[in-house]
């Protein structure tokens, strides 16, 4: 038994002793920590920048697509408030429960794919649900790490610590298994299905391969080196306590977190950012049925947009970069009619 | 079913004859009696013209003049790129910038949308008609030519593409092989909207290059803004025509009908699609009968272009859309009406109620309502004496995409039909999951070259299948059946479709609007409003 064994994590700390090999390892460990912080920062910044970019775009014209989930009693058949006589005089029903009923099955179980592309659902659902479980697993690792910092042992010994311990194992194990199955199945489809042949780019193959690599390393690490995820929790603990040189305890765990960090930074830079942009697709486009009333916020935004200067160059618009939308949509029409009348 | 040769996205830029061919042998099979090839209409081949671009497939919708020189080609390609850039600026494209950006950046290319597209399916899954094909072409061009580092990252992320005049001209035609029904968008697990890409492409061509289908622009919205109506009717002619219709209605129903014009202070300004006045006069006539019988205070406007509800800008040009919508609202404001009711026309209803809702401000923001809701109130108000036994024949309902999937007006027309038509039956699927008639986004009025053949065989094929299935219990021509389509453009397409397939003679199917059925059921007017012999 090593004399440097930690009383909390039961990890061997003998590598903390200073010698050339230990120093190199310490530097690498610190580098991995820094890389993880950087990845997290990239994730946050990328999401924030993309969110801000979309959110700050001007008001758009309505482009409703029914069913709209918050329509209450009409939502199940796709009805809208336009079905009411003199709809503008009636209070609009906005059902939050309806939105949740529309959103949750979509978010958790990919309802649209189940309904419209069942063969793909059998590949995509395990992948996505596996990732949800892994997000849960990461959350449980964080909670466990905080608990340990607070002096609560996370182990099979009973109490809250045991709950965290077992939930972490369940979420991690099933998360890895499901997401690997899904990712491999999706890659298989990309490589073999005629439907997507010609639409598969190198990035698609790379993305799925990266996921498979990261998930496979994570799963093998779990099976071979970290069956209770205590090493993984230890790494999270060292991250949140900023102990950058705390030994990770296993090269496999280090590789696992290196790959996870790459994924965390990479995903929001790609089309896979749909994990949060889907919000806009639904809430800001399909379900955006907010009518424009006199004096409303919408009316103010329209007025502002109609003032944008236009540079489209088709002859019927005669936009020159000086005229704005309001000019072209009103004055120009009258001018054309007058010119036409003069010609005749 | 034999599949067409697999065409790749990047093939669009390869100038080697036509990109694809449409062979009737590949098309989706139809139920009896059209399972027999002898009962199918012939496929009219395209008569190629040397002066217009026709390298996409076996039809022409836009008829783009061929550039006269290499230099002119290059200029047009440059203009295309410049237009594409403008689509992504808030100044030039605030109405759709957010929607377009999201759709361009988030497609997973899973092809779930494909099975939802009636054109793709009916064509025998022709790759070029796949809803994501044109989107992918545009996505690749955008990423390669307009994004930083696009030469490398564009290919890495999306795949190869070459931008040249062949690509541009084919893309222009291809933007008129989609009905913009948005059924594909409804099925997308992420929310990506390929129909929106079609819409934006058409806008790019119209607003930057001045290229648009002649029927939509020159003979459509421009004519409407100059003369008053895309039918060419000026205010005098339209009044004259309505006078004839009034006389006809008076004679036919036994009820004195006089359409009020420009009545200041009326409660309702009714705006018809003027195509009704020309092609289906019984429809505006039936409206007049119903409104008079119900004692509604209503009027038509003779202001240009307020007697024609069409707004083709919806399909190809935001400025044309706004110009027409503003004129409609100005006419209503001038009359001081309480509300505008849009007649049986899906795209007019959507453009004025939904799209123009974020164009009209201040006093121009006059309440606007669909005829479906308005009629439902009248029918169930007890103001009309209705005898459903007068409609004792099979009736099915076509759901106009603009009014139903894109506005959520689903039940009012159904409640009316269930009340006044004892043999009403639904199509499958119906409501917001319906299929487009095949005439959507302007196709119904586009018949140049052999485009009508293309829409009869391909874009309208799924709807024909649905109609036949709805009446499959008795398809004999002796049993008169009514296909209710409360939309002028849909009726235009159904007219051509049923005529091409000889569906009256072979199956006894007549099409018409909703108001005709209501008047046909009115017991205090002469019976027999629906004239089956006028199929």
From TrEMBL, chain A:
Q: Which key words are in the record?
A: Cell membrane, Membrane, Oxidoreductase, Transmembrane, Transmembrane helix
Tell me how this protein sits in the membrane: Multi-pass membrane protein
UniProt-recorded Gene Ontology molecular function terms: oxidoreductase activity
Q: What InterPro entries does the annotation carry?
A: NarG-like_domain, NarG-like_sf
Q: Where does the protein principally reside?
A: membrane
Tell me a GO cellular component. plasma membrane
Compartment annotation? Cell membrane
Give the source's domain of life in one word.
Answer: Bacteria
Q: Identify the residues that the record assigns to the NarG-like domain, covering every copy.
A: 117-282
Family matches, as Pfam families: Nitrate_red_gam
Protein's name in the database: Nitrate reductase
UniProtKB/TrEMBL annotation, chain B:
The residues covered by the Cysteine-rich domain are 395-495
Q: Which domain of life is it from?
A: Bacteria
- Pfam family of this protein, just one? Fer4_8
Name one molecular function that GO assigns to this entry: oxidoreductase activity
- Presence of the UniProt keyword 4Fe-4S in the record: yes
InterPro entries registered for this protein in UniProt? 4Fe4S_Fe-S-bd, 4Fe4S_Fe_S_CS, Cys_rich_dom, Helical_ferredxn
Which keywords does UniProt give here?
A: 4Fe-4S, Electron transport, Iron, Iron-sulfur, Metal-binding, Transport
The 4Fe-4S ferredoxin-type domain is annotated at 104-192
What protein name does the entry list? (Fe-S)-binding protein
Species the sequence originates in: Abyssobacteria bacterium (strain SURF_5)
């Amino acid at each position: 038994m090593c004399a440097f064994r930690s009383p909390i994590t039961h990890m061997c700390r003998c590598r903390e002793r200073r010698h050339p090999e230990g120093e190199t390892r310490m530097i690498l460990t610190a580098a991995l920590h820094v890389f993880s912080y950087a990845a997290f920062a990239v994730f946050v910044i990328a999401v924030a920048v993309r969110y801000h970019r979309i959110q700050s775009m001007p008001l758009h014209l309505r482009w409703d697509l029914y069913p709209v989930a918050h329509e209450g009693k009409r939502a199940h058949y796709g009805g809208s408030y336009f079905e009411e006589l003199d709809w503008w005089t009636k209070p609009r029903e906005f059902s939050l429960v309806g939105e949740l009923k529309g959103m949750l099955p979509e978010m958790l179980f990919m309802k649209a794919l189940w309904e419209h592309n069942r063969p793909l659902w059998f590949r995509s659902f395990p992948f996505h649900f596996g990732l949800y479980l892994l997000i849960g697993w990461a959350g449980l690792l964080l909670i466990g790490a905080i608990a340990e910092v607070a002096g609560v042992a996370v182990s099979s010994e009973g109490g809250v610590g045991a709950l965290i311990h077992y939930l972490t194992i369940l979420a991690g194990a099933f998360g890895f298994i499901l997401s690997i199955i899904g990712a491999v199945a999706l890659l298989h489809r990309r490589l073999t299905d005629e439907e997507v042949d010609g639409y598969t780019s190198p990035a698609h193959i790379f993305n799925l391969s990266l996921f498979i690599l990261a998930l496979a390393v994570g799963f093998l690490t779990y099976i071979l080196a970290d069956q209770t995820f205590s090493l993984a929790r230890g790494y999270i603990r060292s991250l949140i306590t900023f102990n950058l040189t705390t030994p990770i305890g296993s090269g496999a765990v280090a590789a696992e977190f290196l790959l996870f960090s790459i994924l965390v930074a990479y995903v929001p830079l790609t089309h896979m950012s749909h994990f949060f942009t889907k919000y806009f697709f639904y809430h800001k486009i399909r379900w955006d049925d907010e009518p424009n009333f006199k004096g409303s916020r919408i009316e103010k935004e329209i007025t502002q947009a109609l003032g944008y200067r236009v540079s489209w160059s088709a002859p019927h618009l005669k936009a020159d970069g000086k005229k704005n939308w309001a000019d072209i949509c009103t004055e120009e029409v009258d001018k054309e009619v007058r010119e036409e009348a003069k010609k005749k | 079913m034999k599949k067409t040769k697999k065409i790749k996205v990047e093939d669009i830029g390869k100038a080697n004859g036509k990109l694809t061919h449409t062979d009737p042998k590949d098309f989706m099979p139809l139920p009896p009696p059209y399972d027999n090839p002898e009962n199918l209409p012939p496929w009219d081949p395209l008569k190629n013209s040397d002066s217009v671009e026709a390298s996409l497939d076996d039809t022409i919708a836009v008829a783009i003049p061929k550039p006269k020189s290499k230099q002119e080609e290059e200029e047009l390609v440059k203009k295309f790129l410049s237009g594409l850039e403008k689509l992504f600026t808030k100044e030039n494209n605030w109405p759709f910038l957010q929607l377009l950006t999201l759709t361009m950046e988030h497609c997973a290319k899973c092809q779930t949308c494909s099975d939802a597209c009636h054109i793709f399916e009916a064509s025998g899954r022709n790759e070029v008609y796949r809803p994501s094909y044109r989107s992918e072409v545009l996505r690749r061009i955008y990423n390669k030519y307009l994004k930083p580092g696009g030469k490398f990252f564009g290919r890495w992320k999306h795949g190869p593409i070459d931008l040249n005049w062949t690509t541009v001209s084919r893309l222009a035609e291809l933007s008129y092989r989609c009905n913009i029904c948005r059924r594909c968008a409804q099925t997308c697990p992420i929310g990506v909207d390929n129909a929106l890409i079609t819409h934006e492409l058409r806008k790019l061509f119209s607003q930057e290059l001045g290229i648009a289908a002649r029927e939509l622009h020159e003979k459509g919205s421009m004519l409407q803004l100059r003369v008053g109506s895309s039918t060419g009717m000026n205010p005098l002619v339209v009044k004259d025509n309505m006078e004839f219709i009034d006389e006809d209605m008076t004679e036919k129903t036994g009820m004195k009908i006089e359409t009020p014009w420009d009545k200041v202070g009326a409660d309702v300004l009714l705006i018809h699609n003027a195509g009704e006045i020309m092609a289906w006069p019984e429809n505006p006539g039936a409206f007049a009968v119903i409104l008079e019988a119900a004692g509604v205070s209503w009027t038509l406007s003779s202001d240009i272009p307020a007697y024609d509800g069409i707004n083709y800008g919806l399909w190809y040009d935001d400025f044309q859309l706004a110009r027409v919508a503003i004129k409609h609202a100005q006419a209503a404001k001038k009359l001081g009406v309480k509300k505008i009711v849009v007649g049986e026309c899906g795209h007019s209803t959507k453009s004025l109620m939904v799209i123009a809702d974020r164009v009209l401000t201040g006093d121009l923001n006059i309440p606007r309502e669909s005829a479906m809701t308005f009629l439902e109130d009248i029918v169930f108000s007890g103001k009309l004496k209705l005898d459903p036994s007068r409609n004792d024949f099979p009736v099915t309902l076509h759901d106009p995409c603009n009014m139903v999937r894109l506005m959520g007006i689903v039940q009012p027309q159904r409640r009316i039909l269930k009340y006044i038509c004892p043999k009403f039956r639904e199509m499958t699927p119906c409501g917001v999951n319906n299929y487009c008639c095949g005439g959507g986004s302007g196709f119904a009025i586009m018949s140049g070259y052999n485009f009508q053949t293309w829409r009869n065989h391909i874009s309208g094929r799924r709807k024909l299948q649905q109609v036949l299935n709805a009446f499959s219990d008795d398809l004999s021509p002796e049993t008169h059946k009514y296909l209710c389509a409360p939309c002028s453009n849909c009726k235009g397409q159904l007219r051509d479709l049923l005529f091409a397939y000889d569906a009256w003679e072979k199956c006894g199917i007549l099409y018409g609007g909703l108001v005709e059925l209501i008047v046909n059921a009115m017991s205090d007017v002469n019976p027999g409003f629906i004239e089956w012999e006028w199929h």
